[in-house]
Design brief:
Number of helices: 12
Distance between the termini: 33 Å
Strand content: 15-25%
Order of helices and strands: EHHHEEEEEEEHEHEHEHHEHEHHEH
Structural class: alpha/beta
Number of domains: 2
Number of strands: 14
Shape: elongated
CATH architecture of the largest domain: Alpha-Beta Barrel
Strand order of the largest sheet: 3-4-5-6-9-10-11-12-13-14
CATH superfamily of the largest domain: Aldolase class I
């Protein structure tokens, strides 16, 4: 990454127009660049063959096209889910997961979903999430979010049709860059992914939910809920101390009445914690209060993070209890989707690869420091002059 050059990845068409005008070029050059960057996924100026060599030379001296570096790619033998570990320009790591539709889904041949990250790590410390154990480093830029789509598409023979902002990080804490990335990928001259095929998930920022409604953002909205009991949700998600369960429900009511779009409640069933009759009744009541959908999600173990305390006690609900829970919701006329355990054999749970890579790098540094220290003690006269 050259700090003296302008990274064009992540710039809107208007920003590209300002950039080319600053170089003394005409506006139409921005349209060319926009198409090459996003519709064609160019990774260098040499690929932009309908742009003159002279202007490409100018671009090479003044601008860059930063690209995520693929560190690992794992493909599930069970369902074709593909997990990517990317290295950013500053050496940090993020993940994306490409998820095919289930074979028996009516749109299985058309739907291919990419789960993207919005932050390096996450500050929210949800007890069931591996990403939270990393802590928080920084927000991703709009370009880094968009490039997850561009680079994942390069590794897929099928077109990515859907996006879910459910990877590492809390999207609402990076609101501006998230929405900028949405405007880029939905543009007709870019990736042209329909806004209604994009879902943004939040752990519970009521103010941002209202903002999405006020701005009439066309994306879908999902709330990572997991419990309607204030005390238990706080145990799972400390953000509940800032935005209470009732405050979230009021924000979702506001969202629905402003947009007429049904939000989705995401609900992981934990054995003996949020899968009882009372939990069921509360969820049915919330779904009746706010026209919505419920997405039942399997719990991916975070044992590899060596959890302690409450986090260590979390286990997935038994299959029979989960099926009964789902059936009761359907009997109450609640729209229910049950997400499969996609990519479980490749550690597709959010944060797993990045946490492991981070741990591996720390271990490598410690070993290197230990070796250097030992060498220094054994060879005290070998220091540089």
């Amino acid at each position: 990454m050259n700090v003296n050059k302008t990274n064009l990845k992540g710039l809107s068409l208007a920003e590209l127009q300002d950039f080319v005008l600053s170089l003394g070029e005409r506006k139409y050059r921005a349209t060319q660049l926009f198409g090459w960057l996003y519709a064609k996924g160019a990774t260098s100026f040499d690929e932009m063959t309908d742009i003159s060599r002279e202007f490409r030379a100018v671009l090479s001296n003044t601008a860059s096209v930063d690209v995520l570096e693929l560190v690992h790619k794992r493909v599930s033998e069970n369902d074709g889910t593909t997990k990517f570990l990317w290295k950013l320009q500053d050496g940090l790591f993020i993940e994306s997961v490409l998820i095919p539709a289930e074979e028996d889904a009516p749109d299985a041949e058309r739907r291919l979903t990419l789960c993207v990250s919005t932050q390096v790590g996450c500050p929210l410390d949800c007890t069931f999430c591996a990403t939270g154990t990393m802590g928080f480093t920084r927000n991703l830029t709009a370009g880094e979010i968009v490039d997850q789509v561009l680079q994942a598409q390069r590794h897929s023979k099928r077109r990515i049709s859907n996006l879910v902002y459910m990877g590492m990080g809390e999207p609402m804490l990076n609101y501006e860059n998230v929405m900028k990335s949405v405007s880029i990928v939905t543009d007709d001259h870019s990736l042209n992914i329909g806004a209604r095929h994009i879902t943004i998930s939040t752990a519970g920022y009521a103010d941002a939910i209202r903002r999405i409604a006020d701005e009439d953002q066309k994306v879908k909205l999902a709330l990572s809920l997991h419990s309607l009991d204030p005390e238990r949700r706080t145990q799972l998600m400390p953000i509940t101390k800032k935005f209470s369960v009732e405050e979230l429900l009021q924000a979702l009511e506001y969202y629905y009445h402003r947009t007429r779009r049904r939000p989705t409640f995401e609900y992981i069933l934990f054995d003996g914690f949020n899968d009882a009759e009372e939990d069921l009744r509360r969820l049915i009541a919330a779904a009746r209060r706010i026209p919505s959908k419920v997405n039942i999600i399997p719990f991916h173990s975070i044992e590899f993070t060596h959890p302690s305390g409450f986090a260590q006690t979390l286990r997935p609900s038994p299959k029979e209890r989960m099926e009964k829970f789902v059936e009761r919701l359907r009997q109450a006329n609640v729209t229910v989707m049950v997400r499969s355990s996609a990519g479980e054999d490749i550690e597709a749970a959010c944060g797993q690869l990045a946490v492991q890579e981070q741990a591996n790098r720390r271990q490598h540094r410690r070993q290197h420091q230990h070796t250097a220290s030992t060498s220094s003690r054994l060879n005290p006269t070998s220091t540089a002059v």
